[in-house]
Specification:
Layout lengths: L15 H20 L3 E2 L5 E3 H7 L5 H6 L1 E4 L5 E4 L4 H10 L9 E10 L11 E10 L4 H18 L5 E7 L3 H15 L8 H9 L10 H7 L11 H16 L5 E2 L11 E9 L7 E7 L3 H4 L7 E7 H11 L10 E5 L8 H10 L4 E3 L6 H10 L4 E5 L1 H6 L1 E6 L5 E5 L3 H10 L1
Parallel strand pairs: 1-5, 7-8, 12-13, 12-14
Antiparallel strand pairs: 2-4, 3-4, 5-6, 6-11, 7-9, 9-10, 10-11, 14-15, 15-16
Helix pairs in contact: 1-5, 5-9
The structure holds adenosine-5'-triphosphate (ATP) and magnesium ion.
Length: 423
């Protein structure tokens, strides 16, 4: 026997039963995005590697060790997108979206790729949906973005089991002040820091705040807080965001150690976590990125965005409140006698065209086996077609729930079922 080909490590097959939960979630997301007046964007799955190197940052985990990069016939280096903010911004610039309106509110959904160590809630191909609002520097835009994800949580019925952590890294002036304060604080302890943090001490000291190394964690507990280094305008921006969240009844906690892994953030950054998950507890992360559009060759346009991991979100939904999914067929056709098998496809086809979800057996199985299949598919009705019925142009239509059965002509099957289901 030929050897079976296995799935690549760290990726998932989403099978039909599970896909129902995905579809239910996707329909919630789409609906809320529409309510908030976001338009969908579908950028490509791969981009030039340079986009992520410049847009996400060389020193980030993503770019330094997680990307799937390869070269194609043109010998240029391409990368399967590890996230979509850089791609959306590239697309915004390339398509001159600012000409359509000065604020572009965009959302997306799709697979992302990162070479990480696979574990529960952490995969090498995983799905995100996300939103970006490009154009407004003002705190009401920050508040709207957070309210958007909160509305999705609410529509899923899990908002009470999720924690919003928020912080501000301020503008570049505030970050420079803080960078120095943090380095001054850490310098006497430099040799006690983990190797990674020692490496980041010069290149990206803020990242030391979210180090997972126990000793680093202990040290940064007493470090100066970035909030205390914000200049006046950064402080005002942050305070106004918090005020609007309060006014909208969105609970949050301020987390002085929240810095987020990406290089491009300015001002507000946030993360939603759930304790229904284990170690991988972040279901959404985002923040303001006022310099990214410019850094990628666009105009000086401020922006803010977030992304949420669908697999993780569904783990939370599953643990707390599985989504209702449409289940079952309207009708299953049961055919008795091989001569009628050739009539069956036409009947089913017409009933489907008339609006029913309808199925039949294509294995020419026994009546018993066909009944079992109708049951398995949770059909609300079965239509039984034998020689006698065929001669009269009818089927025996049986309501699976009530057990009632009546002869109904081929043409009337769809309307009888549709009327019964809508009453
Ligand atoms: P983490 O700290 O868990 O590595 P991150 O900061 O790398 O997350 P982001 O880049 O902000 O994550 O992506 C946003 C969201 O995408 C995360 O909050 C998470 O829900 C999801 N996510 C990120 N990486 C993965 C992955 N490898 N597998 C599944 N979901 C992921
Ligand atoms: Mg990560």
């Amino acid at each position: 026997m030929p050897e079976k080909v296995q799935r690549v490590k760290g990726v998932n097959d989403i099978l039909p039963e599970e896909a129902k939960q995905w579809q239910a979630l996707e329909s919630v997301v789409k609906h809320v995005m529409e309510k908030f007046a976001f338009g969908e964007i579908r950028p490509p799955i791969f981009e030039k590697t340079e986009l992520f190197a410049r847009g996400v940052g060389e020193d980030t985990d993503i770019v330094s060790k997680e990307m799937y990069s390869f070269s194609d016939m043109s010998k240029s280096s391409l990368t399967l997108r590890p996230e979509l903010t850089a791609g959306v911004v590239r697309s915004y610039i390339q398509n001159n979206l600012q000409q359509i309106s000065p604020v572009q509110k965009l959302w997306y959904e799709g697979p992302m790729f990162r070479q990480e160590r696979p574990q529960k809630g952490r995969y090498r191909q995983f799905w995100q949906f996300g939103a970006e609002a490009i154009g407004s520097p003002n705190p009401e835009q920050d508040a709207e973005m957070i309210a958007l994800f909160f509305a999705i949580l609410k529509a899923l019925g899990i908002e009470k089991s999720v924690l919003l952590k928020i912080n501000s890294v301020g503008d570049s002036e505030s970050r420079a002040t803080y960078r120095k304060a943090l380095q001054d604080f850490l310098r006497p302890h430099l040799s006690e820091l983990s190797e990674t943090s020692q490496h980041r001490f010069e290149s990206n000291p803020l990242r030391i705040l979210d180090s997972k190394a126990p000793n680093d964690k202990l040290l940064v507990k007493n470090a100066p807080k970035i909030r205390e280094c914000l200049n006046a305008s950064s402080k005002t921006h942050y305070a106004e965001v918090l005020k609007m969240l309060e006014a909208m009844g969105i609970p949050y906690v301020q987390d002085d150690l929240l810095v987020r892994g990406l290089d491009y953030y300015t001002h507000t950054i946030f993360e939603f976590t759930s304790d229904a998950l284990g170690a991988q507890d972040a279901i959404c992360g985002g923040g303001r990125y006022n310099d990214l559009v410019k850094e990628l060759g666009g105009q000086d346009v401020p922006a803010i965005g977030w992304a949420s991991g669908i697999e993780r979100l569904l783990l939370v939904v599953e643990a707390l409140r599985p989504l209702e999914v449409a289940s079952g067929l309207d009708l299953f056709l049961i055919v008795l006698g091989d001569e009628l098998r050739l009539t069956a496809p036409k009947l089913v086809h017409e009933w489907r065209e008339a609006g029913l979800s309808c199925d039949m057996d294509t294995l020419r199985r026994s009546m018993k086996a066909q009944m079992r299949e109708a049951n398995r598919q949770e059909a609300r009705y079965v239509a039984i077609l034998g020689e006698e019925e065929f001669d009269q142009g009818v089927v025996q239509l049986k309501n699976f729930e009530t057990g009632e059965q009546e002869a109904v002509s081929f043409e009337n099957v769809a309307s009888v079922i549709i009327n019964a289901l809508s009453s």
